[in-house]
Amino acid sequence: MMERVEVSHEMIALVGAGSVGDRAWPAGAIAIDYAFGGPGAAPTFRYHARPDRRALDADAAARLILIVCPAACRRIFGRLPAGDGGAYHMPAPIRTIALALRDCALPIAMRDTYRLAKSIELLCETFGLLVERPGELVPMIGEGQLSQADSQRIMAARRLIDEHWSEKLTLDGIARACGLNRTKLTRGFREMFDSTVADALAEQRLGEARRMLMATDLPVSSIGYRCGYLNNASFTRAFARRFGVAPTQYRACGVAA
C-alpha cells in the first residue's frame, strides 16, 4: 500500500508503490498522479477531476499522488484546471520536487515536515502550469511514442499556423521551421490536435475570410488573396467546401439578412 502523508485536513499525499488504500479522502477530492517513468517510458503527470480508486490502483508502479479538496484549490488558485484525465510530460522543475518528496531519506521526525512542505510546493508548481500557464504543458502523444522535445515541436507548428496563417505556409516549410520531418509532423499533429496540418491552416484562413466578407467591402478576390489563397478559384472551392456556399453567396445572404 502507498505511504500516506497527512498534509492537512484538505490535502494528503500518497507515496510509493501499491494500492491507494481505502482510508477517507477530502470531500469531493481532485487528484494529480505523478508517474516517474522508466526504460522506454517518459515521466508524466495526470490531473483527475473525479479520481477513481480502482483506476489509480491499476498502476502499481512507484509513484506519487496528491489528493486535494477542490474548495482549497479554488481558494488558493482561483479556479480548478480545465479538462480531466489528460497526461502530460512532467517538466524538469516539477520532477525535481516530486523526486525529492518521494526519495526523502531524512529521519522520521524531520521527514514528515519535509514531505509536507514539498507536497505543498509540488501542488503550487503543478497548478501554476495547469491553471496559469497551460500553453506550456506538453501532452503525451501515442502512449509516449513521441518524445517531449518532438511534442514541443508539434506545439510550435500549431503556434506557427495560428500566428502566420496568412503567409505562404507549406507542410515541408512548417516541418523545417519546427525541426521535424514531414512524417513525424503529420502523424503527431493529427494525434495531438485531431486535425491535419492542412485543415488547421484552412480553418484559420477561412474563418478570417468569413469575417472579412461580412465586415468589409473588399472584393472577394482580394479577401481570398489576403487570407493566403493564390487565386480566386482555389479560395472559392475551399470556402464552399467549408461553409456550403460560395463567398459571393455568403456575403449576399449576410447583407440580405
Q: What's the structural blueprint in terms of helices and strands?
A:
Elements: E1 3-8, E2 11-16, E3 30-35, E4 44-48, H1 53-57, E5 63-68, H2 70-77, E6 87-89, H3 92-102, H4 108-132, H5 148-164, H6 171-178, H7 182-193, H8 197-215, H9 220-226, H10 232-243, H11 247-256
Antiparallel strand pairs: 1-2, 2-5, 3-4, 3-5, 4-6
Helix pairs in contact: 3-4, 5-6, 5-7
What does this structure look like?
By secondary structure, the chain is α+β, with helices and mostly antiparallel strands. It has 3 domains: 3-136, no CATH class; 142-195, Arc Repressor Mutant, subunit A; 200-256, Arc Repressor Mutant, subunit A, CATH 1.10.10.60. Helix content is 52%, strand content 12%. The protein is built from 11 helices and 6 strands. The chain has helices at residues 53-57, 70-77, 92-102, 108-132, 148-164, 171-178, 182-193, 197-215, 220-226, 232-243, 247-256, and strands at 3-8, 11-16, 30-35, 44-48, 63-68, 87-89. A 6-stranded antiparallel beta sheet has the order 1-2-5-3-4-6. α3 packs antiparallel against α4 (108-132). The radius of gyration is 24 Å and the shape is elongated. The termini are far apart. The mean pLDDT is 88. Pfam families: HTH_18. Keywords: DNA-binding, Transcription, Transcription regulation. It comes from Sphingomonas colocasiae. This is AraC family transcriptional regulator. Residues 155-253 form the HTH araC/xylS-type domain.
Q: What is the count of DSSP helices, taking H or I runs of 4+ residues?
A: 11
Q: How many β-strand runs?
A: 6
Looking at the structure, what is the overall shape? elongated
Percent of residues in helices comes to 40-55%
The secondary structure category is alpha+beta
How many separate domains make up the residues? 3
CA radius of gyration is: 24 Å
Strand line-up in the sheet with most strands? 1-2-5-3-4-6
Biggest sheet layout: 6 strands, antiparallel
User: What's the rounded overall pLDDT mean?
Assistant: 88
C-alpha termini separation? 66 Å
* Uncertain spans: none
β content, as a range?
Answer: 5-15%
Order of helices and strands: EEEEHEHEHHHHHHHHH
